[in-house]
Each structure stands twice: as C-alpha cells, then as structure tokens.
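protien #1 (seq + structre)
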Amino acid sequence: IHLKTVEFQNVYNPILKELKASNLLRRSAPSEYAASIFGDSVLAGKADPLFEARLMHQFCSSGAQVKATLENMNKEGGYERMRFEAQAELTLLTDALLDKIATMHDTKLMKLQEIISAYAQEKIVIFCIYKETAKELFQFLQKSFSQLNIGTTVDVKPEELENVLDYFAPIANDCITVDAEITEHTERILEKKIDILIASEAISEGFNLQDARILINYDLPWSVLQLAQRMGRLMRPWHEVRELLIFNFLPDTMFDKELKHGNAWRERLHRRNEEQQSFARLPVLMPNDNDAIRLEALGDVLQQFETVDLELNEAMDFIANATNVGTSSVLDDLARISADESERLLKLRAGFRSRIAKNLGDPALYLLIALRASVFPAVFDEKGALMLPPHEVSRPLELLRRRRDDEIYRDDFDPAALDAFQEKCLAAWLTSFGETREKVRVICALHFTA
C-alpha cells in the first residue's frame, strides 16, 4: 500500500482570511434561531468555533463549496438555525467575494486531473464530503475524461445505490466472477460499467469497492479513523496480489500562520468542555487524554505518510490501531445532515424512546438531556450509574453511532419499568451536576440490550 500526500495551494485562502479579518462572523442576539440543531447557544457578538472550523474545512474542499458557503452567508436565513450580528455588512462583503471567486482557477482540480490522467486505465474511487464538491467533480471529470464513465453516490436514491456500486465493483459485489462466461447478465453489467466513482462518506463503511486499487481522499475528513475506514473499502480479499495507491489531498491552509486557530483556540474549546457546554462545541479532534488539539494535527499525521510504502500487515495494523488516535467524527456527522433531515429532526417531540440490540458491555441507557440552553449526552450502566464523567461529551456519541448491520430490537418491554429506570439514571446525572429535576427535560432515550 503506497500512501501519497498531495499538497496543493488553496486559492481560496485569501477569501477565508478576508472573512476572518472582517470580524463579521459573530452571532446575532439570542432569538428562536440562536440555537443550533442540538441546542447549542453561542452568546451574541461572539464567534462560533464550530462554525469557523467547518468554514475552514469547506474552503479547502472546492470552488463550488466555497460559492455555496458564501451564498448561505450572503442572505438572512441562509443558515437555518443561525443569524449573524452584522448581516447587512456581511452581505456586502460576500457579494464582493462571490465576484472574486468567479475568476479563480482551482489548482486542486488540476492536481486531480494529473492523477487521473496517469491512471486513466484503472478504476478509481474519489471520496469527498460535500455535495457541491461531488457535483463539481462529476461535471469536471465528465468534461475532461469523456472516454471514461463517471459515477457518483451523491443524491442517488437508496434503491439505485446498489446498482451504482455493482456497476463500479461487480467482482467485489459478486455480480460477476473473474473467469465468468459472458452471459446476458454479465454483458449488461459490463455495458454500464463505471470507471471512476465519486463517493460520499455514507459508503466509507460497510461497502466493497476493491475492484479499484486507487483511492483519492479529495476531501480530508477530520479524523484519522475515517481515513482508515475509507482505506478499508479497498483493502479486502482479492484474487491476485497487487499494490494499492492512496492519495491524500493536503491543503496549505492547514499550515498558514494567519489561519491557524492555535493554542488559544485549543484551550478555549477545552475550557468550554469543562464548563459543561453543549456537545455541538466539541473539538473536532480528540487525543486520548480528551484535550482539544489543533486542526493541523491531521495534516501532521498525513505528512508522515508522504513517502511511506506499507506492507499489507503494516497497513492492517494501521487500520486496527486507528481507534487509538481517539478521534471524534461528530463534525463530519453534523456536516452530512441535510436541510430536510435537519427540519425533520427539529419537529420531533421531546420524550421519544427506542431500543437497540447492541453489545457494548455494561451500558444500559443513553439519555439526551436538556438543561437551560445546553444539551448533554449521558450513558448509564445497568445499575443506573453514570458510565462516563459528566463532562465527557465525545465518547457517548461514538457509542451511539450505528452500523448498517446493527440489529433493531423489536421485543416487547415494560414501559413503566423503563420509566422507573430512566428516572433513576436521571437522578444520578442531576446529583453529578448539582441540578434539580424541574430544570431539565429528557429529549430522547435509547435503551441498549445485548
């Protein structure tokens, strides 16, 4: 496995710097729109670290994503649950910035074109996070490589996704075999073959794509674990010995001294965790000691791979040990919530409960608890005691992440007994926080059963 870092000059750095220097990204006064989807309330006149982190990530993705981001900031209500303190001035600035980016040429696209030109005879998987980026890549590659069939998993209906994956990786998905006779079925599969697949994070786990040996991480995820999960799509059993190529696009934005959040940002996030703030303010990268670390740490990890070639056992060790980095994928999860899904979630009434068959050892109940303007996740063991420290807000979310093959628990249970157990757990949480029952409400509950 050859891990190659592709460093590129991000032409949108000056736009990002101008936005940050303008001091126009401050939140407006509290209102019904002041809270985020998870109840996080940022004080009026203050910058939102999570928003700024996501902004930097989006500006490293593509011109199309930068344009979409500026257009959202350009108008009141562009972000459904967020308002800016100086919207009129921000609108004027983003008008000017939109004019500027219209004349810019994305060097990142040129780097991608070079790689695909070098491997045009092979199947390639390109991972990106943002829909606008995926759409831009689809159009660009169709125009630049008209002789190739380009496919995408973005905006594909669930019932059609399986076909897309089969047309790209028919051998891996058991549609055809290497030495199969040509039949009407195999002809149909081969006629609709996909040479290059533009994939979203939704298929970074649980799907077989090993018909390809080349993977391009066009959008860098926030966590090394997610990089490992993407690599795992290709590192599956195959009928012959071969070499895999993994290209990781690394923007110079990560190392620009004017754009680093630095130690002050790191300490501010850590302090807010200690102050029991909402989990929407989670650091985007978490080492094992649960201190926030700077965004550039991911770039530091990838730079170590610049000239590294790994044997299969070394690569498997890397994937197996990736969880030791202790990364949090919450930011990517938030980024993938569509406007429709966000609206649907916001309409759900508080108090709903569910059950899941998931063997996590001791955990018995998860509660999402609202206290004033903040929201807290908590996991309790079978005796009703808090499993994690009250201020720990990352690991409960990691425990909750479902895999596609997780079983849905359908057996009957006693609602009254669950009510009593839930109140017992909530009492333990209230004791830890020094709060009273009338000040909190339970947004939802999830009961784990082996």
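ok now protien #2
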Amino acid sequence: TALLETFIEAVPGVVYAKDRDGRLVVANRGTAELLGRPREQFIGKTDRDLLADAAQAEAIMAADRRIMETGITEQLEEPVQFADGTPAVWWSTKAPLLDSNGVVVGLIGSSVDISDRKHVEDALRVSQQRAASALEVAQLGTWEWDLRTNAFTADERTRRMCGLPLDAPVLGFEHFSPLIHPDDWPRIEQALLRAIEPEGNGVYAEEFRWVHADGRIVWTASRGALLSEPVDGVQRPTLLLGSILDVTERHELIDALKQADRRKDEFLAMLAHELRNPLAPISTAAHMLRLSGDPSPGAARASEIIGRQVGHLTRLVDDLLDVSRVTRGLVELEREPVDVRAVVSAATEQARPLIQSRGHELRVATGAGPFTVEGDFH
C-alpha cells in the first residue's frame, strides 16, 4: 500500500479512484491542489460536493457513470476550475475499476492540464482563420510542390481556377501539362526548374494561360518561394510554396486597349487617305494660278502661299500615316541641312492669320544668314 501511495503521489497531474456513486476513495497531491483542500476534506465526497460550478460537476459525473456502465475506457477533455477560479482544461483518461470477479465497482482516472496546449491550438486556429479570410478577400489560391516526393498539392480555389481535378489529393505534371496553354508550358516548366536550382534565387513568378475543358481561357499570375529545412545536418530545399491569382480580367482589358489602338491607327490611315484626295486639286489650282500670267503681286503671292501650305498639309497627312510606324518604333528621322530662316518663315506664315485677327504685330529679324542646322524639317 505504501508503495502504491508513493507511486500515485509521484504521478504528475491528477490521479484518483471513485466508487460507483462517484465518491473519491483515492487521490494524489495533484487532486488536492486542484480542489485547494487537504485530502481529508475531499475523500468520500463527490464532484457535486466539491466543485463550485454545478454544471461542470454534473458533466464530469455523467461521463464517469457512462464509463462505469459501459465498461469502456475513454479519453476526453474536461473543463475545470482551480481553487482560485482560474479556468483550465484537463485531458483525462478514465477506466472502469473492476473487482476480482470482473465486476465494475468504481472508476480510476488520471488527468493532465493541457490548458497551455489549448491556448496554442486556439491561437493557431484563429491565425488560420485570419489567413483563410485574407486569401478569400484577395481571391488567392495556394499550392505546394514537395521536392522530396515531387508531389503537387493545391487548395480548392486553385483547382477550380485552373481547371485541375478536384478529386485527386496529389497532382503531378500529367495533370498540369494538358491544361496549361501549349505556348506557355515550356516557359513555366523552365521557370519552376530555375526556382529550385542551387544557383537560383528560390523565387518563381510567372503569368500564363490555362485552357479549361470547355475551351475557356483563364490567365493566372503565380508566385512561389523556396523553403528549406535541415536534412542530415544540411539545409536543403524541400518545398516550393506559392499562391495564384486570376488575372483574366486585366488581360482582357489589355487586349481591348490593343484593339482600340489598332482601330485608332486604321482610322488615322483612312483619315489621311481622305485628306490627301482634295490636296491634289488644290495644288493643281495653285499651279494653274501661277501659269495664268496674272501680273498682280497679290495673285502671285496667293499662289505661292497656297502651294507652300498644300505642301505642308501633304507632309502632315504623311505624318498621320506614320502613326502606326511610331507605335512600332519604325520611324526614322530624315536629317538634312535646314536653313533656320526657312523654319522661322514657315512658322510665322502659319501663325500670321491668328496674329492679325487679334490685332497684334509680329516683327521677325533673321539676319543675313544663312543659318544652317541638321534636322528633319518635314
């Protein structure tokens, strides 16, 4: 008996035995600390007599009766309170106590305080819930590539986004390659391999297309980071962890802008063509005016201005046609010697009607010249 009592006292946590009515018949020091009473004050008492929380006492006693009636050992979590009112959670193992004839005469049990573990689990659960909420708000999917087993796993959002099987717990390249656009797959495969190479930076970032079974195209942006852990005392890459985002709408907007830009170029080309048509008869009329032999200075001046402005309009029309070449970076400057006086004269001539309509006076002094520079005057 002394050896049994010594053993019971040495066991951490709470160790006890109860009779069929739930009265304590054996208890260690842990039980006394839990109840905040010396042993002589609780031996022979039930949980209903000892615990301040009646609901808690009834729950414990109901579990004890169930174990004694079924004769089945159970492990269960039990919320309790210390003598000072501090809440705790105990992990209890309880078994029926049998006499020499195999008849249940009571219950034996032990309980260990797992409050700290429960706090950690609760904090982890809250953290996981927050992470899941953040992913939901960001519409992000997640995936993992285990480098040790070469197995891919992905959450449901990723699978639905990419058209991957929902029922396969582990994904392989045979699942990915048929769904990734054939023009993108070689680039993606190489990017993944570069991310895990020893000389790489361990980062994967690519945008590519998935082709769903119904023919729908989904653009995704995926990023990954290489994680390492010690293997045989050496840090080795073991996991590529990543996220994926549906960017189809952005690519559709980009395509729409490109189409609008092409339509703009087509419109400008058509406009330039339509503007060129009336320039030819105007130029011909100016030329005929010069050939008419009209001796008046005004007629000669008008013919000269018309001819020069028609030339200028012709160059503007040609510039409109060059817009498409500008967007492709194909325009080259036609540099040649240019007299600055001619540039000033042309600019003055174009601005003169506005200057006169405002009642202003413009005086230009260009000197004797010539003043030649290299440039594109057209």
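The chain has a mean pLDDT of 82.
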